[in-house]
Every structure is written in C-alpha cells, then in structure tokens.
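Question thread 4412

I'm putting together a teaching handout and wanted feedback from people who do this every day. The idea is simple: show students a protein as raw sequence, then show them the structure tokens that encode its fold, then repeat with a second protein so they can compare. Below is the first pair exactly as I plan to print it.
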Amino acid sequence: MARTPEQIERNRELCRRLSADPAVVAKRTARMVETVKEPEIKERHREACRKGKARQKADPKKLKEMKLSGQRVGELNFWKSIDEQRRLEEIEKRRAANLSWCPREFWSLNKQLKASKFTLEERKQIILSEVKGTQQHARRQIENMAIAQKMRAEREAAQKY
C-alpha cells in the first residue's frame, strides 16, 4: 500500500513535533532503556539485524554498494595508517585538543590520575591547583599557609610548657 506524498509529509511533521517535545523524548528514552535490559528483546534485535544484513548481502546491487562504500572508507584510512609520522602527528593534535585545559608539563600527571579512576572534574581541580597563576593554585597556597600557621601556633603552645 503506497502512501501519498501528503501522508508522508504529515507523518514527518508529526515525528518532528513529537521529537521536539522534551516530555515525549524523556518518556521514549526511559522506555527504550527498560526495553533493552530484557535479554529476549536484545536477542530478537540481534537476530533481526543479522537477517537484515544477510538480506542486504543477498542482493547483488546492495552488496556492490556496500563493497564500494567500504573501499572508499578504507582507501581514506589506508594511507593514514601507512605513514607512521602522520599518524603520530594526528594523535598528538587530538591529544592537544582534548587536553587544551591542561598545560603540557602536567599531561603525565593527568594520565596517572585518569588511570587511578579520577573523573575529569577531579583531575582538572587537582592539576589546576598545581598550575601557578590560576585561582585554584592561589587558593591552595593560602590554605597551605593557614595550615602552616595553625601548626606553628600549636607547636609553640605545646613548647611553652
């Protein structure tokens, strides 16, 4: 049963309107989260995906399109993987972009903190408290001075006797 262009457009408009409503999106998301927790539904979905992919591979035209698409993607990535220097440069650029908040001399500390399961916010707080010129560093220095003064006063009070 073919649908008319008007029906298709009406359906599109309804979908757009529903997708723009936060309440509908939240309800849909919650329902999907609950749905994918059920093992039998997960297995049915996997099986449907397997069958769909098998149907695509059975169609010679679709199979040829899939191969060409894979070749285009592979061709683009093949030369990147061949040139080791370029690959390392790309990794360095990505790292610099991801760690733009962190001075280079603290990258190793960030790596250690990340391996120790600190969250990004915790790592930022720790590292920025070490960087001179930041508010966090000044705050930490003031706290350290206050603690040192308190310890000195306690030591002097203990030594009076």
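The second pair follows. I'd like the answer to focus on this one:
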Amino acid sequence: MIFKINNKSLPLVNRYSAILLVFPAKAGDGILKVLIKFMNYVSRVFALIICFAFFASANLSAVAQTSSKFSFTGIIMDQSGGAISGASVTLREKNTGIERETNTNANGQVIFDNLTSGDYKISVNSSGFSTTVNELVINQDLSKEIVLQAGTITEKITVTATRTESSLLDTAVPVTIIDSKA
C-alpha cells in the first residue's frame, strides 16, 4: 500500500504506519522520536478514555444513590394518646403486593426504610383493639400517627368430648346392706 504526502510516495509497512504519519515529525527526527510522540498521543487518548469512563460511572452511581428511596415512621397509640407497644404492623405495596411486617417498639413507634415511591396499605393490629387499615401515598419521607379504637376481645373456646358406652352389668355398683332388726 502506498500513501502520498506532499506528492511523495511513502510505503506503509503495516496499519500502524498511517497513524505515525499523523504526527508532525521533522526530516531529522528518528523513528524513536516519532514513536515517543506517538506514545504520548496514545497515552493522552487512553487517559481521556479512562477519565470519561470514571466520570460516567461516578455519575451513574450518583443517580443510583439519589433514586427515590423513602422511609415511613408511624406512631401507634390508643384513643387517650398512650403508645401501644408490640402492635403488629403490616405495610403492603399495592402495585407489587410485597409485604413487610414488624412490631412497634416500647414507644409505639414503627419504622419502614428503603421504600420506593408508590401507593401502600398499612394495617395495624393489637390485642384489645380493632384492626386499623390506612392508605398511604409515599413519595417522600412520611410520618403519621395512627390511633387504634378499642375493640371487643373475642376468644373462641372449643370443647370436645367423646362418649364411651359401658354395660351396666359390667359396671361395679356399691351395695349397702341395712339391718332391719333394729
């Protein structure tokens, strides 16, 4: 393959020879000087590619870190404002059906972290209170007080018994003899 520069024909030894012709080289420059210039160019291009990759990945991780993750903090209390500890709280995302369940702490507080934006249903259940269900729209960090209404305590007691048959002839009967001569 022949390459022409300033009406001079230059044979190209391999595919890298054309790249070497891009760099300004004087007539007295040796191949070593041209190679050094070439390596400087390659290292600059490589450094530029590395910087671009680094900043692109840093930007993606920043976007991932700022993706919409929110928290919900609830205070569960009775009608008089007292905290209800140990209440069972279930948070269900409507779109996915994913449920998360936990219990309130000693202060009646419950926290759900790492929530995505969306519609949720929260259900609170505690002994002696009616189950309360609320709808939530989470698109930022949210705090809410939930008041449970006193309920009736209902317990089911099941009694089971079995009947066994026995013959009166096989059953021992105590006999008392009364003396009539007295």
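Top answer:
Good format. For the second protein you could add a caption like this: DSSP finds two helices and nine strands in the chain. The chain has two domains: 2-64, 69-147.
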